[in-house]
Amino acid sequence: MGELDSFEILPNHAVAPVGASGVPRSAWQRTKRAARWHRPYAAILLLLDAGAVALASLTARAGLDPDKITAGFHGQPGLFNLMAFAVMPAAWLLVLWGHGAYDRRYLGSGTDEFKRVVRGSWTVVAIVAFAAFAFKVDVSRTSVGVALVGGLVYVLVLRYIARKGLAFARTRFHLATHRMLLIGTLQEALEVHAAIARDPAAGLVPVGIHLIEGYAPQPSTVTPVPVHAGRDILSLVRELNADTIAVCGSASAEPVELRRLAWQLEGTGIDLAVAPQLTDIAGPRVHIRPIEGIPLLYVEEPKLSGVGWLFKNVLDRVLALIGLLLVLPLFPFVALAIKLSDPGPIFFRQPRIGREGKMFRVWKLRTMYIDAEERLATLHDQNESDGLLFKMKNDPRIFRVGKWLRATSIDELPQILNVLMGEMSLVGPRPLPAEDGDFLGDVRRRLLVRPGITGLWQVSGRSELSWDDAVRLDLYYVDNWSLVLDLHTMWRTIGVVVFRKGAY
């Protein structure tokens, strides 16, 4: 294979389509995307959204007096049905389309799709309110409120179900995916490949690597995808049947070559993505500000204060108090089961490191025999964890009821008391034992927030994760905290607990 000293796009005019390299195209010509999964998916969303709005109108009609609902339509139920089940869904779909809720760039991953649905729905509320005022339509405010709020809720729920179905199709059947060619150095491309592989539901499937420098490795070298060097990019894309090119790391710092690549891809339907060296920083912290044609990437500081942070603290206390009242009737039965399994205390308290390095004692239901600490010395060679914590799938120190308490996460419920006392949060990095806590280097950054009962670590694999992955998720939470991230994590926790994923 050839050797490249820089990021160079080799021209191939024989196969370049009309419109590539900046060739003018007709104003009416529309580029057909190489990846077309979004078309049937958007059509499904259209049907679901229309059905959701119609269902909301049906809900409003079913729960209220029909005479009051149709009063503004001069007692004509046919006119009401036309407005509720035809005009309203059509108008709602049009507004969602105007807000980009069917744009392929936002479908399938991320939160932008749902944000646009919410904004579009609020626009519908404003339009309906203005129309009712302008035309002096005497309609039931309750029915309108139920229909509008119900429409938003139904649309969001059905889109969430559709997103789950798309993720299932991608992970199980490898459908609706993007075949991606990675361009960069071997190390940078492999790092991007590893990051993409962690989220198969995103639908990104690397199919090859094109090196910007050095030789392609020997055929005997083990790499997750084929590695090429010295090839024409467009012909390689066609050979691999790729529909997306990702420029990784230092390759993205070559502005002239990157611009030429973008020119060559015009009219081909192939997407161009740039994966900068800045990783694990979520969108809300990243802003692009063009200055004289130069797109400057600004990275804001994590927002660990302000109104949002205050709301998180209030939400922690309120939900913890409600949770405590709900689980109190369960404690006598659990306490009896623990006592019958092994004489000793019901609760287990251990020193942990909290926010800003402050030590506190965490509350847990006891799941191990009282001599567990003495037994630990004889089990160190059977440790299945690669990090600071001792993990063993069939730990003999855990009694039978304790295994069930751990699998169902009931043993963590007493930590609600730590939340009420302000020592922990509902969502955050897991608190590490004080005697085992290696808080040097990057790990120390997790102390900027209070530890949580649940977190990204728990909803992403729990005990099945490596120590490096657990630390990476904790640091991602600290760097990208938001209320939406907290609520999403709590929602995912329900599924993890119900299906007992990664718990032992």
From TrEMBL:
It is a multi-pass membrane protein. Its main location: membrane. GO terms for molecular function: transferase activity. Residues 312-498 form the Bacterial sugar transferase domain. It comes from the Bacteria. Keywords: Membrane, Transferase, Transmembrane, Transmembrane helix. The chain crosses the membrane at residues 40-58, 78-97, 117-137, 143-162, 318-338. The keyword Transferase applies. The keyword Transmembrane helix applies. Pfam families: Bac_transf (PF02397), CoA_binding_3 (PF13727). It is found in: Membrane. InterPro entries: Bact_transf, EPS_sugar_tfrase. Belongs to the bacterial sugar transferase family. PANTHER family: COLANIC BIOSYNTHESIS UDP-GLUCOSE LIPID CARRIER TRANSFERASE, SLL5057 PROTEIN. This is Sugar transferase. It comes from Dactylosporangium darangshiense.
